[in-house]
Amino acid sequence: MVMASGSADYLGLANAPVLWILAMAVMGVVVVQSLIYMNAVKKNAESAGMSQQEVKSAFRAGGVAAIGPSLSVVLVAIALLPLFGTPPVVVRVGLIGSAATEVASASIAAGTMGSSLGDETFTRGVFIVALMAMSLSGAGWMISTLLLTPVFKRSSHKLEKVNPALMSIIPGAALLAAFAALTFRELPKSPTHVIAILVSAVVMTICLFLAKTLKQPWLKEWGLGISLLVGLIASYFAHYAGLGAPEA
Amino acid sequence: MSNIITSPSHAAFERTTTKWGSLTLFIGFLIATSVPFYLLFVADADVNLGEILKGFLAVFAVYGVFYIVEPLTYFPILGPAGMYQAFLIGNISNKLLPSAIVAQDTIGVKPGTRKGEYAATMAICGAALIHVASMVLFVGILGTWLVSIIPEPVTLVAKLYILPAILGGVTVQLIASLRQVKSTLIALGAAALVILVLIPLVPVLASGDVAIVVIVTIAITWFTRNKAMTDKKGPSDGDNVGIN
Hints:
The structure holds 2 protein chains of 2 kinds.
Chain A: H1 11-14, H2 17-44, H3 52-78, H4 81-84, H5 86-94, H6 99-111, H7 124-162, H8 164-186, H9 191-213, H10 218-243
Helix pairs in contact in A: 2-5, 3-10, 6-7, 7-8, 9-10
Chain B: H1 10-42, H2 49-89, H3 92-107, H4 114-141, H5 143-149, H6 152-178, H7 181-201, H8 209-223, H9 227-230
Helix pairs in contact in B: 1-2, 2-4, 2-8, 3-4, 3-6, 7-8
């Protein structure tokens, strides 16, 4: 667990009003983008045979499904507050990146100055170098997305012309492959990781089964939150029963 | 772009999302990157350019390949419009894609169809607004107070196991929603082989592990497809569900 030393003199700086404004501006950009996209879908849904009711349902389902993951990310993010200050955490975790990536980046960058996160070697200068490295790295993802997306788009339009079936097969297969790979990647980490995956998978299976047999469609939307919560509770007991990740 | 009033069309959707998606992503990039530069200029810290470069290069050495690999991996899933959302907001595998999967399952559409793409876009918008609300309220406003009342063992468990606890459920819902038995088996087999066998043998490939599984799965699914069923369907068929 990373914790700042009591005398972290940069925290006042990290909580400066200007940074609060920047953090809120960044969140504002996300909201504006979402509003524009929602409007674009609403306007053009008809062309795909999608009713306004379905547009609303999709929006609500996405929002409900995000509640569990969002609250869990909050738990992780607030643990970083004593280390980085509030506005930098909102910007780093709230935009591209995740809590895990940001902590790893910060600790790698601090290491180049012979310092480590959270102890007295983590000074004002190290803090700025670490935050700079995290931000530039996040910028790397954004810039390459801006540059690569038009390229990918042209290629996929070309592929679609060559064989229309291709684009109906690729997204589903890619989605299955990505989640299968991400899940398998968690397996070797510790017995508790395996338990977290299995419990969450079983709870979801039950939710989906009940949603179908009892005709309770809300269980499809809330299933993710429920399986995440039960999965985390099971992990809690497994972890403190000694089955946890070795580095913890 | 001129103010022509257009009738509903996918071209109009792509035009709007490309223009505004890339613009908002660029503005997000500018604001986020200005944070450390602001600190650098106002803080009275003894930091030189060499130290910053060294710190960044060390991080780049670990994550640089992901700048290319992740957009490549997620493009076939997200499509151009979704790319600008996902790489602005982040939290792609733990929040945005799960939301898209749940929404597609809820209204009963498949990825790879227009309707599926629109459902995913709306779902990501819903997830984005929940994301912003949770960040502003629970991290921005209440964060300092929450961190003082939530016991550390709880935050530790959340930190360590949030991803597997999401992935187990999402993967099940994805499989149930797609109902493509063959693709599912190919994906699970490819993932097991690549992650549990190939990567331990050739650790240098580790950063491209998900991308390798995605490419292998797409290739096998494609070459073993039932041509009679898939290849005669035209692009205008909105409910084209792919194979099986």
